[in-house]
Amino acid sequence: MKTLLKVDSLSKHYEGRRGLIGRLTGAPHTVVRAVNDVSFSVERGEILGLIGESGCGKSTLGRAILRLHEPTAGRVHFDGSEVTALDAPALKALRRRMQIIFQDPYASLNPRRTVAQIVGLPLRLHGLAASEDEARAITARICERVGLKANQLDRYPHQFSGGQRQRIGIARALVSNPEFIVCDEPVSALDVSIQAQIIALLLELKREMGLTYLFISHDISVIGYLADRVAVMYLGEIVEMGPVEAILARPRHPYTQSLMSAVPEVEASGRRARIRLTGDLPSPLHPPAGCKFHTRCPLALDICRTTAPLRETVGEGHIAACHRLGEDISLLEDGAA
Amino acid sequence: MSQPLLDVRGLRTVFETRAGTVCAVDGVDVSVQRGECLGIVGESGSGKSVTFASVMGLVKSPGRIEAGTILLDGCDLRGLTPKQMRAVRGKDIAMTMQDALTALNPALTVGEQIAEVFDAHDDTLPRRGAARARAIRDKSAEMLGLVGIPSAESRLRQYPHEFSGGMRQRIMIAIALACRPKLLIADEPTTALDVTIQAQVLELITEIRARLGMSVVLITHDLGVVAEHCDRVMVMYAGQVVEEGPTAEVIAQPQHPYTRGLLASIPRPALRGQPIQPIEGQVPDLIGLPPQCRFYSRCPLHRDACLAPVAMRSAGPNRRVRCILSGEPVE
User: Fold this and answer.
1) What pLDDT, in 10s, does the model give residues A242-278?
2) pLDDT surpasses 90 at A32
3) Which residues contact B143 (CB under 8 A, 6 or more apart)?
4) What is the pTM of this model?
5) B246 strand-pairing partners
6) N or C: less crowded end of chain A, CB within 10 Å?
7) Which of B238, B273, B174 is nearest to B23 (CA)?
8) Peptide bond before B62: cis, by omega within 30 degrees of 0?
9) What are phi and psi of A187, to 5 degrees?
């Protein structure tokens, strides 16, 4: 397999606003480190699942890769070219090949445009259709493929249900025939039965069109079902990453373990003893020192409060960042906690 | 079996809209036993929230309850005046809403919002004056402690926006439980929360239920939540109950094609590499529904006989199903 996307020490920081006194006294900006020094790569044809709780920076990371949000530091390479160094025209040309599907099918479609206009826009922007008729034909073909009917092309987004709207968003992302798609929680806003329809559709399209996905989700069941590899984010950093089988069978980071134990299971056989995490996600404005997870970690030691752990290789293609990896503790089995 | 705490029969709630009459709840029977936790599962528009908004007397125009009886401890709630109903709400039944941020009043402190409940319902308090205020404050702080909010005394003076999502949900639970209701209706209590926080809140509800011996109705779209926390489950679809029974049995042997479809469409790691089988199509429009089986258009097993109205059928002890292909007709 060939690497399609390579992310190197990518960071996205937001500076907070200062009040009058802050500005007059020259107090430093408060900085939110939404994404902090994240590195990974995605092979052509694979699905990398990115999982984490709200506020952990997973959506920001997805957008920083596409430069929808300009990264603060770090580099992104896509198929050999450096995305982070491109000027605007070159970036626009590359955007044809990298697309995004958004979480909220209500907010991400222009209510004043018809389906044909929304889905056809990338064709016009990139000059992919010689004529209006051709654009219309391409649009109709992709819409039919994602399960919209030909007579729905001239309707407006509000005339569709959530699942149908997500199909419009998918058609828009795919119409320019891209290679790489950031799927930013594409099924989180949908009902269970509709969610399954969209997941099945995304997997079919990936096979047919040879796509590569960065699939962002907070739902470990969805990621466990469809991803090849998983990256787990906590407060802007990747704490564990590896092949999905390895992580499901033997998660190494205590955060990954507690995430997995918290998922309600339908089948009694799949149920695990719950690891009780105390407290909430700390504010990213004031992240804890040392290991960022130490405030909620049942295994935290003194060193965790002062020193950030380094990434270590714990298996083939499997890395984790925790001071206690060497002790090989699992909170999941036989209720060790 | 003893008399159930809540007994709803033939509930029908409709909303008048410009496009026509939407029948959001159509002939729903619910019974909740003392001390039990009943799970209500369904997708958007299945009528699960409207059913319990009707029980709480919270259906407002253009909606109205068209038919049915709602008995709480033998008392018919539909026969009560609004004033009498206010005395029941918050005292005997309480409800928590899905979105804690919009359900709480942003302009009042958390303490004031909990205090309202005691002020309205608690007869054991001193009648007036500083003693009453002191007693209410102590009780409010005790409630925050009960739902696991540390330094309760000082947090009573804070406003909802100063709390995180999980904490706000706990505050709503604290308000709902203030007068130790017999029945707590929790409407999607954890949908807006992250999984680790969701686990904390659900455990809190289960723990308090055991401690106070109350009944809980847990409305959710997540079958996993029901499987882990509810004794019995009712599956709703397009305004009707389609299946009901002990949770473990319904999940192990679903009888209705919709329940089977729901279970098959949950993606999980165990199904890797196998295609999931989504239920095709969408929930039907609730305006002017034909009298046939509501699941007809999406059902893989549908046949001509399904075009007639389908009643609930008995499918073993304590199990009911609304499908002509399973169970026996009830006399």
Assistant:
1) 999 999 999 999 999 998 888 888 877 777 777 878 7
2) no
3) B114, B174, B175, B177, B178
4) 0.87
5) B232
6) N
7) B238
8) yes
9) -115, 0
For helices B165-177 and B110-121, the axis angle rounded to 10 degrees is: 10
**Is there a contact between A249 and A316 (Cβ–Cβ < 8 Å)?**
no
CA–CA gap between residue B234 and residue B139 (Å, rounded):
35
Q: Which residues of B make CB contacts under 8 Å with A? A: 43-44, 164, 166-167, 194-200, 202-203, 221-225, 227-229, 248, 251, 261-272, 275-280, 282
Between CA A216 and CA A187 the distance in angstroms is: 10
Amino acid occupying residue B321: V
Give the pLDDT confidence of B12-38 residue by residue, as tens digits.
Answer: 999 999 988 999 999 999 999 999 999
All residues of chain B having their beta carbon less than 8 Å from the beta carbon of residue A218 are: 194-195
Instruction: Identify whether the C-beta of residue B229 lies closer than 8 Å to the C-beta of residue B248.
Output: no
**What mean pLDDT comes out for the span B84-96?**
92
d(CA A42, CA A330) in angstroms, rounded, equals: 28
DSSP state, residue A122: H
In this structure, which amino acid lies at residue B67?
A
Q: Where does residue A235 fall: left (phi above 0), alpha (psi -120 to 50 degrees), or beta otherwise?
A: left
Question: What is the SS3 string spanning chain B?
Answer: CCCCCEEEEEEEEEEEECCEEEEEEEEEEEEECCCCEEEEECCCCCCHHHHHHHHCCCCCCCEEEEEEEEEECCEEHHHCCHHHHHHHECCCEEEECCCHHHHCCCCCCHHHHHHHHHHHHCCCCCCCHHHHHHHHHHHHHHHHHHCCCCCHHHHCCCCHHHCCHHHHHHHHHHHHHCCCCCEEEEECCCCCCCHHHHHHHHHHHHHHHHHHCCEEEEEECCHHHHHHHCCEEEEEECCEEEEEEEHHHHHHCCCCHHHHHHHHCCCCHHHCCCCCCCCCCCCCCCECCCCCCCCHHHCCCCCHHHHCCCCCEECCCCCEECCCCCCEECC
Q: Which of A199, A200, A259 sits opposite B195 (nearest CB)?
A: A259
Q: Give pLDDT, residue A173.
A: 95
**pLDDT tens digits for A119-158?**
999 999 999 988 999 999 999 999 999 999 888 999 999 9
Tokens of B318: 């304590």
Asked if B266 lies within 8 A of A192 by C-beta distance, the reply is yes
% of chain A surpassing 70 pLDDT: 98
* Spatial contact of A79 and A93, defined as CB atoms under 8 Å apart: no
Residues B187-196 have a mean pLDDT of 82
Tell me the two tokens of residue B5: 């705490």
Amino acid sitting at position B254:
P
Token pair for residue B194? Answer: 């992250």
Under the banding of pLDDT at 50, 70 and 90, the label for residue B1 is low
Tokens of B128: 């007036």
The overall average pLDDT reported for chain A is: 90
B278–A268 CB contact, under 8 Å: no
- pLDDT surpassing 70 at residue A334: no
pLDDT at B78 over 90: yes
- According to DSSP, residue A274 is labeled P
Which A positions 236-255 lie with beta carbon below 8 A of chain B? 244, 248
Q: Work out the angle at residue B178's Cα, subtended by the Cα atoms of residues B172 and B183, and round it to the nearest 5 degrees.
A: 85
- Average pLDDT estimate for A91-120: 92
Mean pLDDT of A54-72: 92
Q: What does the alpha-carbon distance between residue B279 and residue B270 come to, in Å, rounded to a whole number?
A: 19
A64 touching B (Cβ < 8 Å): no
The angle formed by the CA atoms of residues A10, A182 and A70, to the nearest 5 degrees, is 40
**Bridge partners, B233 (sequence order):** B39, B245
**B195 contacts A268? CB cut-off 8 A:** no
- Give me the residue label for tokens 């098959």: B264
A203: nearest CA partner in chain B: B275
